[in-house]
């Protein structure tokens, strides 16, 4: 048990944006939402999963929809109260704690804001260890846990509770409502007890995000180069360094779809790379050769500051480094790849671990 305050939020937002693999929303917006709530209501208590009582009601809370739209619509404080009321009434017991459903610049921040405004703790865990675009893409689905009852509300006060036959149906129906509500909503789903949480959640993701954020913030405080420090701290793989030469992006069905083209610079001069994304980065190709695929993380960071660049912030001329990170091990299972492997997204490639594709060690600078 420890407290999350303004300093911690800065680092969590930065590190979670990296783990968001291009998705999960704008970390600046997410940070403002969380900081505003903590300034108004006080620090948030962060609980280790091992501290949760077996019968406690733990509820993930998140934003659903296209990150680009969220940056325009924003999130108020009433959505948290509405979701808390709906879920508590459904189960006939008070929610013990909120938790994030994924890592990302917004979806790691919303639970902090919600917990601050409602005066309840947050759990140091999530259901992905990164960000994915669809609701069923969580470790809880692999464990056979139902997404519903799922509560949904928008900023206008419209709300609903879903009870679906599969988690994929939850995604389909909730996505349709999300579009009717303007492209982004707030949701709570995969409500669970402490036993289930400890069995299937990705533990200590908030702490990992904070550590990564602190490492990025202090990269220059070392005799080594910032690049060496970055790859040592993240245990990542350097896939490409280049300048964005073109961005093809469209918002469709509550997702940001597209490709970003890169022209190589420095040691990669004369080469080219293409990153395919659906909210999150899915495939990284260099000179036509695949170097990383989902569910491993493909992240773009500023070539000078190493601050993560989300898919909705990609701009012509920006210089970036393409970074690969290993995913949570459960995603590499057969069930995991059925949910989030490259073929699920319509990509005509099979998954191979990033460390095999780049044929390097845990760092490749």
TrEMBL record:
Pfam families (alphabetical)? S-Me-THD_C (PF20906), S-Me-THD_N (PF06032)
Record-linked Gene3D superfamilies: CV3147-like, CV3147-like domain
Domain called S-Me-THD N-terminal: residue spans: 8-163
Q: Source organism's superkingdom?
A: Bacteria
Question: What residue stretches are annotated with the S-Me-THD-like C-terminal domain?
Answer: 166-354
Question: Could you tell me what this protein is called?
Answer: DUF917 domain-containing protein
């Amino acid at each position: 048990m420890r407290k999350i305050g303004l300093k911690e939020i800065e680092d969590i937002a930065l590190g979670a944006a990296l783990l968001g693999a291009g998705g999960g929303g704008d970390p600046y917006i997410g940070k403002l939402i969380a900081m505003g709530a903590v300034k108004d209501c006080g620090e948030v208590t962060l609980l280790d999963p091992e501290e949760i009582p077996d019968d406690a009601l733990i509820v993930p809370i998140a934003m659903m929809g296209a990150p680009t739209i969220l940056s325009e619509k924003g999130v108020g404080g009433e959505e948290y109260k509405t979701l808390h009321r709906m879920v508590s009434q459904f189960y006939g017991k008070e929610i013990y704690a909120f938790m994030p459903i994924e890592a990302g610049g917004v979806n790691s921040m919303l639970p902090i804001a919600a917990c601050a405004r409602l005066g309840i703790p947050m759990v140091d865990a999530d259901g992905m260890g990164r960000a994915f675009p669809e609701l069923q893409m969580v470790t809880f689905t692999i464990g056979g846990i139902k997404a519903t009852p799922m509560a949904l509300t928008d900023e206008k006060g419209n709300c609903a509770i879903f009870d679906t036959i599969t988690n994929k149906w939850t995604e389909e129906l909730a996505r349709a409502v999300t579009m009717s509500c303007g492209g982004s909503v707030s949701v709570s789903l995969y409500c669970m007890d402490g036993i289930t949480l400890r069995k299937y959640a990705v533990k200590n993701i908030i702490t990992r995000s904070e550590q990564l954020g602190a490492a990025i913030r202090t990269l220059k405080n070392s005799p080594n180069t910032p690049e060496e420090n970055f790859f040592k701290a993240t245990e990542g793989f350097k896939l490409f360094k280049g300048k964005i030469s073109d961005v093809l992006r469209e918002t469709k069905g509550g997702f940001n779809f597209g490709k970003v083209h890169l022209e190589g610079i420095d040691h990669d001069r004369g080469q080219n790379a293409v990153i395919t994304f659906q909210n999150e980065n899915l495939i990284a190709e260099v000179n036509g050769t695949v170097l990383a695929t989902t569910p491993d993380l493909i992240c773009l960071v500023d070539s000078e500051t190493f601050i993560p660049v989300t898919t909705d912030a990609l701009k012509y001329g920006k210089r970036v480094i393409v970074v690969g990170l290993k995913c949570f091990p459960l995603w590499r299972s057969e069930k995991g790849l059925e949910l989030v492997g490259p073929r699920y997204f319509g990509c005509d490639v099979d998954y191979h671990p990033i460390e095999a594709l780049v044929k390097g060690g845990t760092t490749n600078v």
